[in-house]
Amino acid sequence: MQQFQLYINGKFEAGAAQFESINPATGKTWAIMPEAKTDEVNRAVCAAKNALYQSEWAGLTATQRGKLLFKLADLVEQAAPRLAELETNDTGKIIRETSSQISYVAEYYRYYAGIADKLEGSYLPIDKSDMQTWLIREPVGVVAAIVPWNSQLFLSAVKVGPALAAGCSIVLKASEEGPAPLLEFAKLVDQAGFPAGVVNVITGFGPECGAVLSSHPDVAHVAFTGGPETAKNIVKNTAENLAKVSLELGGKSPFIVFADADIQSAVNAQIAAIFAATGQSCVAGSRLLVEASIKDEFIRQLVKRIDSIRMGLPNDMKTEYGPLCTLRQRQKIEDVVAVSVQQGAKILAGGIIPVREGYYYPPTILDCTHAPQADCMTTELFGPVLSVDTFENEADAIQKANSTVYGLASGVFTNNLTRAHRMMKAIKSGIVWVNTYRAVSPLAPFGGYGLSGHGREGGTSAVLDYTTTKTVWLRTSDEPIADPFVMR
Length: 488
Ligand code: NAI
Ligand code: MG
Hints:
The chain is of the alpha/beta class. The protein has 2 domains: 2-249 and 448-472, Aldehyde Dehydrogenase, Chain A, domain 1 (3-Layer(aba) Sandwich), CATH 3.40.605.10; 254-434, Aldehyde Dehydrogenase, Chain A, domain 2 (3-Layer(aba) Sandwich), CATH 3.40.309. It has helices at 38-53, 62-91, 95-115, 152-165, 180-192, 206-214, 228-237, 263-275, 295-307, 327-342, 375-378, 394-401, 417-426, 461-465; strands spanning 2-3, 6-8, 11-13, 17-23, 28-35, 122-124, 131-139, 142-146, 169-174, 199-203, 219-225, 244-248, 254-257, 287-291, 346-349, 364-367, 385-391, 409-413, 431-434, 453-454, 467-475. The strands form 5 sheets. A 7-stranded mixed sheet has the order 15-16-17-14-13-18-19, with helices on both faces. A 6-stranded mixed sheet has the order 10-9-8-11-12-20, sandwiched between helices. β8, α4 and β9 (169-174) form a beta-alpha-beta unit. The longest helix is centred in the N-terminal third of the chain and has 30 residues, at 62-91. The structure holds 1,4-dihydronicotinamide adenine dinucleotide and magnesium ion (MG). The site of 1,4-dihydronicotinamide adenine dinucleotide (NAI) has 29 residues, from α6 and α7.
């Protein structure tokens, strides 16, 4: 059985305890993971603090930091097949997706590597003739990055990349559900030659490892991706250290199809939006809002397309649809679907657990046109369940699109140009995809409104989040300071 290790202060170690990690495709233990408890977390934060202020890291030029990040990007690219295999084994995410996603993760590191020496301060044209005044950008401090199980390499790259570009040091906490790819990533950090303690990679459970890390007095910024309930705990955890917090949470993203849309394209995009990654995506387009006049035809084509989705073992390149990550997750989905059916939702596809080993749940569609308040319309299921409602006109579509507490992503399908522009302005979500869905890039900021969190990852502005400014005043006059009792 494979065994993984923590990475603290440039050394690999076994952890305070070990726990078994399950392969969701079989439901069986496949590897042994190291658990970081209070002592390991404290040592990791201490290492990060020392690295920030005392190691050679603090003395590197921004260009040298960028070079280390370029090296890391190359190593991630070379290791992509191995990292993908580990992520697939540990989380059940299909190898088709993990392998293409991880190769692309290298581009995120390259993007932030390039930014490292383009972070400029400024000179202020101050309104006092005997003063020179500058703004200097400095790293914000020790960053605690906490990620969920899905797409861990990707979700950590959008934190580790900008934080290192800014000159911070990091304690990265992998999810206890599938930490293998990040623990393996630690080896690449080591190989790239970052000074000890600049990046520490640990894993463990939320209530101890996550809580001790986010509340640690030496942590300056907690960059969190995960569920909204955990996010509330993170905010509570930072009540004492007053760390800066950025939150990337879930959603109940609307997928809006107008009658004038290219229907075949919309059908494929809706399949991608809710059934790719078995629906376990923060941006899942889980609420289909379809113009009433085309509902029946649209649903007919969707249901037909579902029939040809290839469910199978996640490590087979031909598989399009794998298991859910955990049994608990499948149970939650089953429960919400059952309650929604009692509330009046009708099952149009799926809903019955297939007879096979592993945590599979079928692509499922629920018609909620007569039960728009059903739980499945408002609860983030983080799984392959599409809830359907209709709308009569544009105003109705906007009202329904904006009717949840979330606001992460949205999709609009229309061939009417002016309508597309009106919709992108009216929808309250951090991302609006028009005639496409689930497109990402290191250049494009990513994040939400409302209970989908705040802060934006990706793009140049993300680096600024990991910096703080220092205002420097320098008096140029040789005259003695006269009156000590007035403000200068
Ligand atoms: P989760 O919220 O259960 O766990 C996320 C991380 O928080 C884990 O590392 C966990 O150990 C840690 N944690 C748990 N309790 C903690 C505590 N009290 N203090 C500190 N840390 C704690 O999320 P899960 O189930 O792993 O992932 C699914 C969720 O993540 C969904 O809601 C999904 O929408 C969201 N997500 C958001 C994304 C975004 O970019 N907006 C991307 C991917 C997922
Ligand atoms: Mg696992």
